[in-house]
Amino acid sequence: MIGTIASLGGLCISIWLIFITQDARDAAREARALARKRNLVEELESALQMIQQVGNFVQQEQWFAVRLRADEISSTCRIALTRWPDHLSVENKDNVVSAIGLVGSIAKAASEHNNDNGITLSRKRKINDAHVRASDHISSALGEARRSEERDGEEENAN
Fold it and tell me: Is residue 156 over pLDDT 60?
């Protein structure tokens, strides 16, 4: 009789522990997903910060720095799209791809110039236009990633 009660008690505790561990596993998965979104936000923030630096380098006609920073932006955006393919809408994935193309054209234009050669005003305007459009595209994707992160963070705090 005592053995039967002990067995039933052990069974009840085992079932209770299964539910607790499942809840803990679910919470860990949610935390991992939120951390992944935060990493996406950080990558896009970094890309946006670098694109702002590109604008400063263009104004100062520091073409070597423009090219290097443009290459970094391209790389950061490609990594973000590869690591988090399911965290952005199709529209914002396309925005990031467009930004990569625009930054590539900026890098190409920068490689055609060096600090000793001047650049025509019309060419500089085209570079500035590409810079502004790339910045807008990355900002849009960043806004979506932040909104998603905040929404998921609020849901996690509510639970």
Answer: no
**What whole-number distance in Å separates Cα of residue 159 and Cα of residue 154?**
9
- Reported as a single tens digit per residue, the pLDDT across 13-60 is 777 667 666 666 666 677 566 555 568 899 999 999 999 999 999 999
Neighbours of 57 (CB within 10 A): 21
Distance CA 73, CA 100 (A): 8
Are 102 and 51 within 8 A, CB to CB?
no
Residue 63 and residue 113 in contact, taking contact as beta carbons nearer than 8 Å: yes
Tell me the C-alpha distance between 134 and 17, whole Å.
52
Task: Report DSSP letters for 97-156, one per residue.
Answer: HHHHHHHHHHHHHHHT--TTS---HHHHHHHHHHHHHHHHHHHHHHHHHHHHHHHHHHHH
What is the third-level CATH fold of 30-158? Four Helix Bundle (Hemerythrin (Met), subunit A) (1.20.120)
Rg of the chain taking only CA atoms, in angstroms = 25
Give the count of alpha carbons within 13 A of 119, CB side only: 21
What DSSP state is assigned to residue 27? H
Check whether 74 has a pLDDT greater than 80.
yes
